[in-house]
Amino acid sequence: FPAAASPLLANLNPEQLAAVTLPVGNALILAGAGSGKTRVLTTRIAWLMQTGQVSPGGILAVTFTNKAAKEMMTRLTAMLPVNVRGMWIGTFHGLCNRLLRAHWKLAHLPSTFQILDTQDQLSAIKRLMKQYNVDDERFPAKQTQWFIAGAKEDGLRPRDVEVRSDDDRKKVELYQLYEEQCQREGVVDFGELMLRSYELLRDNDAVREHYQRRFRHIMIDEFQDTNRLQYAWIKMLSGRTAEGRFEPSGHNSVIAVGDDDQSIYAFRGARVGNMADFVREFDVQRQIKLEQNYRSFGNILDSANALISNNTKRLGKSLRTEQGPGEPVRVYESTSDFAEAQWMVEEMRQLAREGIDRKEMAVLYRSNAQSRVIETALFNAAVPYRVYGGLRFFERAEIKHALAYLRLLENKDDDTSFLRVVNFPPRGIGARSIEQLQDAARAAGHSLHDAVSAVGGKAGANLSAFVAKIDVLREQTVGISLREIIELVLDHSGLIEHYKADREGADRIENLEELVNAAESFVTQEGFGRDAVALPVDELRQSPASQGLDPSLPVIDEPLAPDAETGETLSPLAAFLTHAALESGDNQAQAGQDAVQLMTVHAAKGLEFDCVFITGMEEGLFPHENSMSDFDGLEEERRLMYVAITRARQRLYMSHSQTRMLHGQTRYNLKSRFYDELPEGALKWLTPKNQGFAPSAFGYGGGYATSRGAGGGYSKDSFASPPVPPQKAAPSHGLRSGMQVFHNKFGEGTVVSLEGSGDDARAQINFPRHGVKWLALSVAKLTPV
Ligand code: ATP
Ligand code: MG
């Protein structure tokens, strides 16, 4: 494949070119921030497809966030006319969800399983601990949650956990009970998504070999932050067995991309050691280093390099730029956190006057608690902003309440949702009655929903009324659109009415209305499989790269693939609920608005902005007090600082404050030790460097030069052309609502409603003997009767 032949390769440097056009085989790309790692991965995918080496279905690419996955898809569609929805690009969680949806039976899950987010997981654990009278002083629920998540990240089921003390035994017992509870309720937490799909592959030879044959090219971005289980999952898919054998079906190429200096999730089980293991266990012959940074100007890069050189545990890389020094890194000291925020707002106004978009300004902080003061200042100054990774849209209380009603419609046995709304809005069901109900349910082995008749008296009547309400709602949702379902639930649950009576409920009502919009855009844009170009299913089967695929297994090219045998598929509601659990929902609030971006440093990984503010540069905050005392902790904080600095393209600010309110206390922090590790020549102090305490806030140095540096140009991507618009096919199934049809497994039924077109057409059908089902018409065999 001559390099010059493809315009895709035109702007790459020689090392990048080598990485993009690597021959089949395993490789590690180890390179510093902003050196084009992610760009290389994306370009490689496009190049492999363009040169016919792989079909879209043969690629598996793992990114770290949903945002990164979307970004990759946008860039791909700009490079090539391809249906990215058929491709397996996503986060570990997203991809695992897809596997489990496709093979739920083999994974021992109900087809409608729902996902528990961390909040729900905690409340499920609390509930369990209360039920079994576990002392929550001795075993705080959060710790139990941590323990369970940690075990799962290491791939351990309760029976596999090593027990060294009585406390361990108790925790393992709780883990076991928790698992049983989740299984009974048909819910899985994030760790379970990963572990369950690992076990699915491990225990089912046919499934494993199928995917091993299918995914000829596996690519993982941000590899330094993978944990043990994720690494094992990759190994499994690529045909390396635990014993180091090679399975004949796995002869795919795995490319891992990472930066040891950006490993910032050790506290969550990430193992940099995976890199060395990968090189050894995958017999990696090619290691490529990228040393040119395309993102940042010299002063920013020098600061990053100098800082990280203080770490001892490094694999060793260097980074240079050809962009010239650019502007100095500006440092500001304020008297209070409030003044710090005030200064930032002023600075942003100035930047806006210079023509910088607000979405190109980011404020980064070490911990979420810092955002409140900044948000207040921005709000008061009427500067639009958006918070990432804080309380996500789908995690807000009112949204969770609405989702709980919706989840109960899908799965009456979801006790977590049941408990969330059984008395919300208040309907006179007290704690006593609920305990009674829980006891009855446990005794009978039923879900709470199914146990209400066991409670008598007034309480029982109220409970029965609640259950009746849910059941009636469920019946009413048959045949109506997702939007109508949500509106119906908001109305009939009493949620809207409840918040109307609340003086501060206006925002909440607005959010609930936003939920309707979220559902609407999920159906149209995200496409509940409807508007996307359907990837011809045969393409994959016939492509040379997939010879030997097991024909009895479904070829899953849609995230929500129908069951191969019956054509049964997720309802739009169930699909939306999955989306709500997996997506951050960041796009919902203020979508598309030109807003300042607020996020933690952790959440900023992989992103870039023209202007970056790193706030709270204080001892105890950054580095964080929890990690200052031990050596490894401090090195991780330094890597985090390295990530923060390297997000900036043009301009970087750092600030600290003499006093700060945190968790209700005023703190007097010293300025961060990290300042001392930066090259003095790259910095410009806007306030006197060693001023110590001063009663009044200092003015900031307005009116400084605003040159964009020697190169003058922004180093933005040239991949910004709009995505290829999806095409629509005409309906061809000939079904109409009200028609009687016959399905060879479910028997006779009535068509209730129809959605989508072409290969994506789906019908909701009421089968008297099997209930209401959604079927994909390209798969389900239906004959009119
Ligand atoms: P991080 O470690 O932060 O994830 P990265 O190594 O993944 O960074 P990218 O995000 O891929 O880096 O690239 C950084 C920036 O440099 C992007 O804006 C990218 O488009 C640009 N870039 C990369 N390579 C080149 C190149 N050869 N020519 C011009 N711009 C480039
Ligand atoms: Mg990257």
UniProtKB/TrEMBL annotation:
EC numbers for this chain: 5.6.2.4
UniProt keyword Cytoplasm present: no
A matching Pfam family: UvrD-helicase
Domain UvrD-like helicase ATP-binding: 10-297
Residue span of region Disordered: 715-734
Cell inner membrane as UniProt keyword: no
A single GO molecular function term of this UniProt record: hydrolase activity
Reaction(s) catalysed by this chain's protein: ATP + H2O = ADP + phosphate + H(+); Couples ATP hydrolysis with the unwinding of duplex DNA by translocating in the 3'-5' direction
Residue ranges constituting the UvrD-like helicase C-terminal domain according to the UniProt record: 298-606
Residues engaged in binding ATP: A31, G32, A33, G34, S35, G36, K37, T38
Family: Belongs to the helicase family. UvrD subfamily.
Official protein name in the record: DNA 3'-5' helicase
Organism: Variovorax ginsengisoli
